[in-house]
Amino acid sequence: MSEPTTQAPPEDPADGRDLRPNLGAMLSRSGGLRLERRLDTRPVHEFYATVAALAITAVLIGGLVALAGVSPTDAYSALYDGAFGSVESALETLVQATPLILTGLAAAVAFRAGVWNIGGEGQFFAGAMGAYFVSTLVGPLPAPLLFVAMFVGGAIAGALWASIASVLLVRYGTNEILTTVMLNFVILYGLSWLLAGPWQSPKTPYYQTERMDAKTFLPRFVDDSRLHWGFAIALLAAVAVYFLVQRTSLGYELRGVGVNRTAAAYKGIHVGAVVIAVMAISGALAGISGAGELLGLHHRLQLDIAAGIGFTGIIIALVARLNPAGVVVVAIAFAGLLNGSTSMQVGTGIPAALVEVIEGVALFLVLLAAVACRYRLRRRRQIHD
């Protein structure tokens, strides 16, 4: 008589064999969901993702405001009034958007070529310093020539400062992220030395230059507004960048380098020359931004003429998907958020820290949407034995 068969006990997990059911196989058999990268991200996908991000942002901001004891309706009303609720607020939003458009374009051009220029802040200061230096040299030039000379000086200074990182990258393979970030600090310390010495105004103990001559002030579109001609220059720069990227041989080459440097080199593109040219253009755009802020608003060099403008430009370029027209739209929207947040704080008494949280949440969710639209959820096919 045969002995009754018994089921062998499971092996001890300590022997290294995992006897638990395979989770992937279970999902496959049960028709579970999986995350799949889209082969082609269409504009409609980006639109839906952005709308969803903005809707979630509105809900989260409303919750945060309610927790602070303020009516979300009152907060949103104050936000809109401060951004676009009147002609004055709308013009001020465009003032805030002007440097952001240029630094956003600077980042977009470099990123298109796969070059991570994180030095927009330093190149912004280089442009302001270049414009100021030229204003002390040119003498009594007619106004149009004077403005051209100062902006050219700012563009050259920004391009030269950015080219330090690109030459190090091409010649020695130095990481451009590290060099551009470090150059931001180098130029700030250099400017501090100048403002404490050769360029310091003898009339004040503060680190600043003398107020520039009135003939160097950029004209304004409206007498009662701070909106100056720098905004028009920013729009022209956006058109120029679009034409450069989409309609020129250099634009074709920089896009090729951005996709695959090895393939571009096999195609006959001089990758090193393209990288240096692209960084020079990127630095020039950031330099023009600095020159515009100096000549249009501040009229004297100070250490606080840029409140993170270069770094904000990077965020704007990424949110805009490196598209010049998108950079203009996103920069204006972000400037409206800045002005509206300030108005919301003043009008409702929301703490300043909460205002910064609101700005951060909005940017984070929009950036997350830019990534999320590249993927989709697909149901796994059921597998039958």
Name the features.
mainly alpha, 14 helices, 2 strands, 67% helix, globular
SSE order and pairing:
Layout: H1 23-30, E1 33-37, H2 43-67, H3 72-84, H4 87-112, H5 120-135, H6 143-172, H7 176-195, H8 230-247, H9 249-259, H10 261-266, H11 271-298, H12 309-319, H13 324-348, H14 352-372, E2 375-379
Helix pairs in contact: 2-3, 2-14, 3-4, 3-13, 4-8, 4-11, 4-12, 4-13, 5-6, 5-7, 5-11, 5-12, 6-7, 6-11, 8-9, 8-13, 9-11, 12-13, 13-14
Description:
This protein has 385 residues and is mainly α. Helices cover 67% and strands 3% of the residues. It is built from 14 helices and two strands; from the N terminus they run H-E-H-H-H-H-H-H-H-H-H-H-H-H-H-E. The protein has a two-stranded antiparallel sheet with strand order 1-2. Helix 5 (120-135) crosses helix 6 (143-172). The longest helix has 30 residues, at 143-172. The radius of gyration is 27 Å and the shape is globular. The two termini are 36 Å apart.
The geometry reads as globular
Rg to the nearest angstrom?
A: 27 Å
Poorly predicted regions are 11-21
Helix-strand category: mainly alpha
Q: Largest sheet, described in full?
A: 2 strands, antiparallel
Report the sheet-strand fraction. under 5%
Mean pLDDT: 87
Element-level helix/strand string: HEHHHHHHHHHHHHHE
Question: Within the largest sheet, what's the order of strands?
Answer: 1-2
The end-to-end span amounts to 36 Å
Instruction: Give the tally of β-strands.
Output: 2
Helix content: 55-70%
How many H/I helical runs?
A: 14
